[in-house]
């Protein structure tokens, strides 16, 4: 049977590369910074321009597909994951990094069918690393197969996390209690690249054992989630059980032992779901 989704994936890789060129070019200019939900939730004209490029180019080729894009949702479009083929786009994952020229910035494109991610493309544009995964066909970086770390001892692990873009004091308390618990296990270290997508690619690459966060959105993690699982890793909710793409919570780890150990230390909380009416 013909591989019907391959041309969509090829298009995603090509347009992510083009988007990366725009991002690199924009770093040479002054960046106009605007805010969204709060003073530290940033957006630039480049986020909007890149999202338009990805959506318009994909719509021309695949007019029946649906789209969930970070900036379109910020502009009032709905964020409902249906069974239809759906592109889930973060035009710049790591906008704060982009604003400050901190060198980890990704274009993230996930593609779902029947609410399952079928392929994921994360282009780390300043490192020029193209991470790709196709359901059942493995995960790659610039064409080289990826494999998660084999470490099963949490005390020998590096864990990635982020502080997110909310400064709600109650949420910050939970975040710092979790961080303290995990650091004091102890683990070898805690890191954060400033982009959920790249943190997940680091798990897939075997550089860090796990990444967790409460506060992410579906566009931050759709592509990365498949890259992790196709590299042999696991995905979980922060309270254990299945990860739910719309729940704004994730644990992505190299194996179940590490994931479950981290879950025990996370002081969880609930946020409004991405698909809340
Ligand atoms: C953000 C980044 C950041 C994470 C936030 C995300 P954005 O995405 O992935 O690392 O902590 O939760 O919202 O806003 O730069 O696309």
TrEMBL record:
GO terms for molecular function: inositol monophosphate 1-phosphatase activity; metal ion binding. One of its GO terms (cellular component) is cytoplasm. Transmembrane segments: none annotated. It catalyses: 1D-myo-inositol 4-phosphate + H2O = myo-inositol + phosphate; adenosine 2'-phosphate + H2O = adenosine + phosphate; 1D-myo-inositol 6-phosphate + H2O = myo-inositol + phosphate; D-glucose 6-phosphate + H2O = D-glucose + phosphate. It is found in: Cytoplasm. Its EC number is 3.1.3.25. Mg(2+) 1 binds at residues 70, 92. Its main location: cytoplasm. Keywords: Cytoplasm, Hydrolase, Lithium, Magnesium, Metal-binding. InterPro entries: IMPase (IPR033942), Inositol_monoP_metal-BS (IPR020583), Inositol_monoPase_Li-sen (IPR020552), Inositol_monophosphatase-like (IPR000760), Inositol_monophosphatase_CS (IPR020550). Its cofactor is Mg(2+). Mg(2+) 2 binds at residues 90, 93, 220. Pathway: Polyol metabolism; myo-inositol biosynthesis; myo-inositol from D-glucose 6-phosphate: step 2/2. GO terms for biological process: inositol biosynthetic process; phosphatidylinositol phosphate biosynthetic process; signal transduction. Signal peptide: none annotated. SUPFAM superfamilies: Carbohydrate phosphatase (SSF56655). Gene3D superfamilies: 3.40.190.80, Fructose-1,6-Bisphosphatase, subunit A, domain 1 (3.30.540.10). Homodimer. Belongs to the inositol monophosphatase superfamily. This is Inositol-1-monophosphatase. It comes from Oryzias sinensis.
